[in-house]
Fold this sequence. Notes:
The structure holds two protein chains of two kinds.
Chain A: E1 2-10, E2 16-25, E3 30-34, H1 41-48, E4 56-61, E5 64-65, H2 71-76, E6 78-82, H3 93-97, H4 99-103, H5 108-121, H6 138-150, E7 156-160, H7 168-185, E8 188-193, H8 196-202, E9 205-210, E10 214-219, H9 221-226, H10 231-236, E11 247-248, E12 255-257, E13 263-266
Parallel strand pairs in A: 3-8, 3-9, 6-7, 7-8
Antiparallel strand pairs in A: 1-2, 1-4, 4-5, 9-10, 11-12, 12-13
Chain B: H1 2-12, H2 14-17, H3 23-55, H4 59-70, H5 74-85, H6 90-114, H7 117-125, H8 130-160, H9 173-182, H10 185-213, H11 216-219
Helix pairs in contact in B: 1-10, 3-6, 3-8, 4-6, 5-6, 6-8, 7-8, 8-10, 9-10
Amino acid sequence: xxxxxxxxxxxxxxxxxxxxxxxxxxxxxxxxxxxxxxxxxxxxxxxxxxxxxxxxxxxxxxxxxxxxxxxxxxxxxxxxxxxxxxxxxxxxxxxxxxxxxxxxxxxxxxxxxxxxxxxxxxxxxxxxxxxxxxxxxxxxxxxxxxxxxxxxxxxxxxxxxxxxxxxxxxxxxxxxxxxxxxxxxxxxxxxxxxxxxxxxxxxxxxxxxxxxxxxxxxxxxxxxxxxxxxxxxxxxxxxxxxxxxxxxxxxxxxxxxxxxxxxxxxxxxxxxx
Amino acid sequence: xxxxxxxxxxxxxxxxxxxxxxxxxxxxxxxxxxxxxxxxxxxxxxxxxxxxxxxxxxxxxxxxxxxxxxxxxxxxxxxxxxxxxxxxxxxxxxxxxxxxxxxxxxxxxxxxxxxxxxxxxxxxxxxxxxxxxxxxxxxxxxxxxxxxxxxxxxxxxxxxxxxxxxxxxxxxxxxxxxxxxxxxxxxxxxxxxxxxxxxxxxxxxxxxxxxxxxxxxxxxxx
Lengths: 273, 222
């Protein structure tokens, strides 16, 4: 369990990125921080591994205040996956994945064997192990990034818009893979995105943030869709614009249309699995 | 054209090549001074440049110092130091170091700063210590620029090491100043050609070194 209590981040120039944020990220679940750019979601994420230091308030992991921990072991115990992968361009794929185990002193052969297993897990062909990051596609680099985040088998995985820079088809693949991986591993994932679809696809819990890290609403996607807390939430998730209000098409045939009359899907007879 | 042929003939003359006053000995001295001057400058400028590049602190100071040092008139400095410290190698050596410092400093911090910031951020987030970030990420990625700085410093010092002879410390400048005093123009031109040749060879060597130091992952492309 990761718990934020009254956490504020103010930069020296006076900008308040996060103002009095409190929240819990439950274990073995995916919590999505959803908000537009500049709302402080990445700042909240980066305070978990102290890439950003909180100005006030406390952050605990399993009851232990992280401010009292050494940053280096703290960071090594938490997986981190970032936008654009952030791989080391001068290291081969296999060494990039094995970064944290190698830092922790795991023998090279063992670390590489583990890295190869992770390549299987994230759907990378083992023949890519000897390549350099710039020889991979954006989607493949992102898979390497996920494998690197998982390499030391951390309980917590922080993901900062990890699929933001890949094209929509690849993004959908990666989201599906992440769901599969999560169903196998059951990590505590904190996932930052501005993409509502992505949040609904991946999040067990979704926290919608307004400016300054103000919590606009938290809940499951069903709860948020059924009872948007306010106009901001309704607007952000597209309820206000009618995009998510579905009706049967007047032409019949089970086609569903949204508030603008655009066809968006078909209605199945049997209930959802 | 005659002078040029005479100069080559002067170099080719076996009588000018061997012995303690010969071309090989002076060439060795010249190269030695340059190497020592640049190495001494590296000892100061590389750690300072790494610190500036890694922390981002003192950048304004480093830029200011580097440009100020570039504006120093080297001949004036050698003369002044010669007057202060007397005949010998110490004066010119200080001048060589002062001349080499700015390029190496600038090359080093520019190299560190040029390392992909996203990769550096990722390395830090993965749990590298600041020292590991510097030595395993920023330094290897910045190595080509760092060597580039040493390369231009070395070329400047090779050219300037000619002035060592001005205060009696030998090197290829010895032939030049001797030729000047005896109005032996072929000898002067020969000395210049030797300096130019040395600079060209050094430049090619550094060029190869720079290519070799470029990390493999940055050389290959998809």
